[in-house]
Fold:
Amino acid sequence: MLELYHAHISTCSEKVRLCLAEKQLAWTSHPIEFARGEHLTPAYLALNPNGVVPTLVHDGRPVIDSSVICEYLEEIAPADGTALMPRDAYGRARVRAWLRYIEEVPTAAIRVPSFNGLFLKGWRQMSDAQRAGYIAATPLRKGHYRRFGKDGFSKDQVDESTERLRQTVERIDGAIVKGSPWIAGAAISLADLCVLPTIVRMSDIGLEDVWRDLPNMTDWYARMRGLPSFEKAFYPGSRVSVTD
Structure:
């Protein structure tokens, strides 16, 4: 039995939902509402001491960290399903190198414009004591929230995150070569699925110009949007807009 504790708009949750859809695995949904602090309750922290989403529970045992969950699903899924990791060691190393890069660069970078565009209004409405209490209760990313401050991330911080996102889409563009439409080889892999939510978020908050001059990247994104798993992972209510 697979259970997923996830947030509808969480990019890390979207990674796992994409993987579940590609592997055609049945799962039970447990939505977590950030606004209600459900990710910081004792019950949830007992599953995931980091206080973040998603958390996969398989036969009662929790698995945490979105990329780890995706690799775990690849290992436990039936062998006759869609393979999201290459069979050869070098191919798997290529995918894992992408996964480490995705965690280090775009996954972190997209938080800056996302927070400024989507969460600043609600954050400002909290009192200083409420903000301090939230930060104190957050196991991870305390520094992220402190840098967010009361007025959001600075222009320099936004520019730096945009630079890192530009590097990401340039790497995707460069990875798409003739006869290989996916970023880590001839077949779709966890690398494609795990970077996709960041690109979707960039689109949703008006950052498509960052890759408009990159034809391979543009074609790759169109292919990803055409996958049946896309609609399953990005269902109504799971995408955002800076005008929401």
